[in-house]
Design a protein that fits this description.
- By secondary structure, the protein is mainly β.
- Helix content is 12%, strand content 38%.
- The chain has two domains: 121 residues, Acid Proteases (Cathepsin D, subunit A, domain 1), CATH 2.40.70.10; 169 residues, Acid Proteases (Cathepsin D, subunit A, domain 1, Beta Barrel).
- A hairpin with a 2-residue loop joins strand 17 and strand 18.
- It is globular and about 65 Å long.
- This is Transmembrane protein, putative.
């Protein structure tokens, strides 16, 4: 009987360990399309608090903009000043998915560039003064790998409910991947402190070649894709050559219809130097407006030979970011774009 009980406890521990290898958090979006997720945090005997975090994969650190009194009321433990970020460091217990995790964060002061922000950081930074959620969750053995995956549900009309999605911290959810597809590890381009992958300079609108693109990045915080100031005009020229009407106003492109639009493709390079073709269908690079027009989800920026995919791409691709390998992981999703994914 004692042996059976011991075996049962060991099996239960293994099950709990397996379940804890990934933490799934639902994502929401505000009226401006900014993604966020809500975490509750507190310490025993203190006020229950919650914060709306923005997930960040770029230049970031864990921050919660709050006063010292607010931190005290929520039971956060004061660690000390952070002169680099300009604020005070705290430790608190957050509920992430079905797990409780102690996470350190900085409450920035008004001189900090982070003041007014609430961010949980998943970047590749390894700075002395920055705190990173992946490092902390891995150290607590709550995740199996230092990586995070994002999936968004499709949203075409601004009159529809605000789009939502999910964030998987640790192990990926392979049920989201299109049948017959696999997760592909892209080669690291090597940009400092940025998840990036090399491209094969074959960006196309349908069969029309556009200007060279050598490197691809991803931005979970903005819906817009970014092209360089050299590549963006070539896209508009492709529209004109194919008789596609558009209006350019205040750095935005508006289209009366997407009927003539074609897929935009670019092949990225995986870790085995093989091409992985990213395909943006018109519905993933336009947004229908309440007046019936369509907004082009491309903007221009002074970047040389680069493309930054906005979070609209996470509607058709399941994309992860591995901190230790500094690699982007990508797979085409099953086209089941609704709240049942969460």
């Amino acid at each position: 009987m004692k042996r059976n009980l011991t075996s049962f406890c060991l099996a239960l521990a293994l099950i709990n360990l397996t379940l804890a290898q990934s933490l799934t958090v639902p994502l929401s979006a505000n009226q401006n399309g900014k993604l966020f997720f809500t975490l509750k945090y507190s310490q025993y005997g203190f006020k229950d608090c919650q914060v709306n975090f923005i997930p960040s994969i770029s230049d970031c650190t864990n921050v919660v903009t709050q006063t010292a009194q607010e931190a005290k009321e929520c039971g956060s433990v004061y660690i000390g000043p952070n002169t680099q970020v300009q604020g005070d460091d705290y430790l608190s217990t957050f509920q992430i998915g079905d797990q409780l995790a102690q996470i350190t964060y900085t409450a920035p002061n008004q001189q900090s560039s982070f003041y007014g922000e609430n961010e949980l950081c998943f970047s590749i930074l390894n700075g002395k003064f920055e705190s990173n959620a992946l490092d902390q969750l891995f150290k607590k053995q709550l995740i199996s790998e230092k990586q995070v995956f994002f999936s968004l549900n499709a949203q075409q009309n601004l009159n529809q409910p605000i789009p939502a999605g999910r964030m998987d911290i640790g192990a990926p959810d392979t049920s989201l991947i299109k049948q017959g597809s696999n997760l592909v590890y892209l080669k690291n381009f090597g940009l400092q402190n940025i998840y990036s992958a090399p491209a094969n300079r074959d960006l196309k609108f349908g069969d029309v070649p556009l200007s060279n693109v050598q490197v691809a990045e991803f931005d979970i915080e903005s819906r817009f894709h970014i092209l360089s100031i050299f590549t963006f005009p070539s896209l508009l020229q492709a529209f004109e050559s194919q008789g596609i009407e558009y209006t350019y106003q205040n750095d935005n492109v508006f289209l009366p219809s997407i009927e003539k639009l074609q897929d935009i493709t670019l092949s990225l390079v995986d870790e085995n130097n093989q091409p992985f073709i990213v395909r943006l269908q018109p519905s993933y690079y336009t947004q229908q407006l309440p007046n019936g027009q369509y907004l082009l989800l491309f903007k221009k920026q002074i970047r040389n030979a680069a493309i930054i995919f906005g979070n609209a791409i996470f509607e058709s691709y399941y994309i992860g970011f591995n901190k230790d390998k500094q690699q982007i992981i990508i797979a085409e999703k099953e086209q089941q774009q609704n709240s049942s994914q969460i």
